[in-house]
Design goal:
Elements: H1 2-12, H2 16-25, E1 36-41, E2 44-50, E3 55-60, H3 67-82, E4 86-91, H4 92-97, H5 99-115
Organism: Methylobacterium cerastii
Pfam families: DUF559 (PF04480)
Domain DUF559: 3-110
C-alpha cells in the first residue's frame, strides 16, 4: 500500500520531461498502445509501462549520470527484467530536444517486443 501512495505522489509532482512524454503516451495516443505512468512493479515505481508489451520507459535526469546512480539503475534494471520487462531509458534532454524521435523509439520498442 505504501508503494501505491508513493506512486500517486509521483504522478502529482511529475517532472517537466515526464509530463511532456506523458502528453504523447496517454490515452492510447501511441498507435493505440496503453501506457500507465508511475506504476508499481516489484519494489520499484516505473515511470511509464506498457503492460501488453512488457515494456518500461524510464526518464532519467541529470542525477542518473553519477556512478552511484548508475549502479542503482543497473540493480533496478536487473530486477525489472527478471519480472519480464524490457527497459528503455530516455533522458530529460532527449525528451526536451527530440520528443518525436523518443516517441518513434518507444513505438519501435513496443512493436519489437510484440513481434518476438
Amino acid at each position: 500500500m505504501e508503494q501505491i501512495a508513493y506512486a500517486r505522489g509521483l504522478r502529482r509532482t511529475q517532472t517537466r520531461a515526464g509530463a511532456k512524454l506523458w502528453s504523447v503516451l496517454r490515452r492510447r495516443q501511441l498507435n493505440g498502445w496503453k501506457f500507465r505512468r508511475q506504476c508499481p512493479i516489484d519494489r520499484y515505481v516505473a515511470d511509464f509501462v506498457c503492460i501488453e508489451a512488457n515494456l518500461i520507459v524510464e526518464v532519467d535526469g541529470a542525477t542518473h549520470s553519477t556512478m552511484q546512480e548508475c549502479e542503482r539503475d543497473a540493480v533496478r534494471t536487473r530486477t525489472l527484467e527478471s519480472c519480464g520487462f524490457a527497459i528503455l531509458r530516455d533522458t530529460n534532454a532527449e525528451i526536451a530536444e527530440n520528443l518525436d524521435g523518443v516517441r518513434e523509439t518507444i513505438l519501435a520498442a513496443v512493436e519489437r517486443r510484440l513481434s518476438v
